[in-house]
Design brief:
single chain, alpha/beta, Rossmann fold
Length: 245
């Protein structure tokens, strides 16, 4: 298969690519459930069970308010409860110095390199404007896609911006959330191939699976399984999948 044209993140008039691969980050390329588990243990150790519970309560309230996870934003609000505790100042260091590269799923970087052989690879993530880019950089994902990183509040609502920046004949979205895949499929139809790695708590949620059984064109157990997939499958514009109920 011929190599796709090299893509540049800052091109003013980007060329139309034959194929663009869009990758989610959390629980798609990076085990964010483990990051959360490590932070929970750290909070309990440093501040006790009740204070840790309060942080996660704030965290969930903020996620409902903003539509994305904001660890540092939750820390700012959490700080109001523990203003006099000097150890709180060290909590941001735990987040900023966390070894995210150690939390990449096996084969994640190799998958990005392999799929770059037949298309342009792009990170497409939800998140805040500070911590999420930091996570992508610290994990090595930023360099792995040559700086082609897009981070929005609701990425499924930003497809026009994505397609303007990276125009393509066909798109492939790799995401652990069936809801996201379904929303993007509804907008792009056969111009989009959806890939569902069954990793993390969202992917294993029975209610999500029940609501969106039709959302994925391709399902793999682990992101590393894409190392063995026949790349020609991404040349198909229409894939056979179950009808939406």
């Amino acid at each position: 298969m011929a190599h796709a044209k090299r893509c540049h993140p800052a091109a003013k008039t980007p060329a139309i690519h034959e194929r663009v691969f869009l990758f989610d980050v959390d629980n798609t390329l990076l085990n964010n459930d483990q990051v959360t588990a490590d932070l929970k243990q750290h909070l309990i150790k440093q501040f006790g069970t009740e204070s840790a519970r309060r942080y996660w309560e704030i965290f969930e309230d903020l996620r409902a308010e903003l539509g994305y996870t904001d660890y540092l934003g939750a820390l700012q609000r959490y700080r109001e409860d523990l203003m006099t505790d000097p150890k709180l100042l060290l909590m941001s260091s735990f987040l900023l110095e966390y070894p995210f590269a150690d939390r990449l799923y096996p084969g994640a970087l190799a998958v990005l390199a392999r799929l770059a052989q037949c298309g342009c690879t792009v990170i497409l993530s939800d998140g805040d404007a500070v911590f999420q880019p930091h996570k992508v950089q610290r994990s090595g994902l930023w360099d792995a896609v040559g700086g082609r990183v897009l981070i929005y509040i609701h990425k499924e609502k930003m497809l026009d911006a994505v397609m303007t920046r990276y125009p393509a004949q066909h798109y492939v979205m790799v995401d652990d959330k069936l809801r996201i895949l379904a929303a993007m499929k509804a907008l792009l139809g056969d111009r989009l191939t959806t890939v569902f790695p069954q990793q993390g708590h969202y992917a294993c949620d029975a209610e999500n699976i029940r609501l969106y059984p039709w959302a994925a064109d391709i399902t793999v157990q682990h992101i590393g399984d894409l190392l063995d997939i026949d790349l020609s499958v991404f040349s198909q514009t229409t894939l056979v999948r179950p009808n939406k109920e």
